Amino acid sequence: MKTPIVVKIGGSTLGSHDTTIEDLVALQKEGKTLVVIHGGGDVITQWLSRQGIPTRFEKGLRVTDDETLKVVVAVLCGLVNKELVAAIQSLGGRAIGLSGVDGGLIEARMKDEKLGYVGEVVKINPEPIEAILRGGYIPVIAPLGFGVKGEKGEKLNVNADTAAGEIAAALGAERLIFLTDVPGILNSAGKSPPHLSADEASSLIGSGVISGGMIPKVEACLRALSTVPITQIVDGRESHALLKVMEGKGSGTTIVLAGRRE
Ligand code: ADP
Ligand code: MG
After folding, report:
1. Given CB 3.0 to 4.6 Å as the disulfide criterion, which of 173, 177, 182, 230 pairs with 168?
2. 11 CA distance to ligand 2 centroid (A)?
3. What residues are neighbours of ligand 2 (ion), with CB under 5 Å?
4. How many Å apart are CA 105 and CA 122, to the nearest integer?
5. Distance between CA atoms of residues 109 and 120, nearest Å
6. Of 182, 211, 237, best ligand 1 pocket probe by most atoms within 8 Å of the beta carbon
7. What is the 3-state secondary structure (H, E, C) of 108-128?
8. How many CB atoms lie within 10 A of CB 68?
9. Whose CA is nearest to atom 1 of ligand 1?
10. Which of 108, 107, 142, 151 is nearest to 125 (CA)?
11. What is the rounded average pLDDT of the residues 135-144?
12. Which is nearest to 22 in space by CA: 97, 85, 88?
């Protein structure tokens, strides 16, 4: 089996009329092996407010009590996941949706009692992904964690960026691509350089230039660089962003190990 390309679709590009789904189907038809991980934060927040459940974040993580967890599972694994799978299938692609609970794909443990059912990844079991890939489908993964034995709560809310990084690392992916809503990693001058070394990226986190939702993406890239040669942050709002980046013509920022340039 060819080494996969792992693509994380951000909440901010989900549902907008972008070309990501078309690109995924085109790449699949070219014979590329693809794995998709999606977020869904904005849709979860909308549904929580419809249910009258208040949302609270601590350090960018959603405090997840019993009621919140039910909505997270329903919206992430139900609505958002099926919407993506249906969109891929309707364009002639082949996709199967699953969550990190299915097949024990994402093993997690509770991060901090105060955050409730928020999980940190303990281990990735890649077999369910490999089985789906062998069948010729794109696995479309909702980042729900499966609580390891003895843990309180068997379903845990896991950050999608972190899950993408761990999955890419476990698969030894060919590349890891984050599609998001900015031109790339913005430096202190507000510009997005085409390349950053891992050290440069770390120091941008240290100095606070990288903040909020960009932190888990960059950390996931740094984590994945142990086995993944190319990790990229790309503007998913651009037309055919994914195809362009695969052709080496895209914009965005690539994080590389020192001395390595694409
Ligand atoms: P996604 O839905 O793709 O996960 P997020 O909103 O979680 O999107 O993360 C992307 C956001 O990170 C950007 O919209 C931007 O506001 C923020 N961000 C913080 N620091 C930076 C930076 N240095 N470069 C680019 N984006 C940054
Ligand atoms: Mg985010």
Report:
1. 173
2. 6
3. 213
4. 11
5. 6
6. 182
7. EEECCHHHECEEEEEEECCHH
8. 22
9. 10
10. 107
11. 98
12. 88
Distance 129 CA to ligand 2 centre (A): 23
With tokens 């980042």, the residue in question is 143
> For residue 171, what pLDDT is reported?
98
Q: Is the pLDDT of residue 129 over 60?
A: yes
How large a percentage of the chain has pLDDT more than 70?
94
- Answer for the pair 98, 119: CB distance below 8 angstroms, yes or no: no
Structure tokens at 260: 């390595």
Whole-number Å distance, alpha carbon 10 to ligand 2 midpoint, is 6
pLDDT of residue 262: 47
pTM given for the model:
0.95
Measure the CA–CA gap between 210 and 217, rounded to whole angstroms: 10
Query: Predicted confidence band at 16 (pLDDT cuts at 50, 70, 90)?
Result: low
Distance 108 CA to ligand 2 centre (A): 19
User: Ligand 1: which residue has its CA nearest to atom 5?
Assistant: 213
Tokens at 104, concatenated: 């024990």
Which numbered atom of ligand 1 lies nearest the CA of 212? 19
Dump pLDDT digits (tens) for 31-70. Answer: 999 999 999 988 999 999 999 999 998 877 899 999 999 9
Active site residues: 8, 11, 41, 161, 217
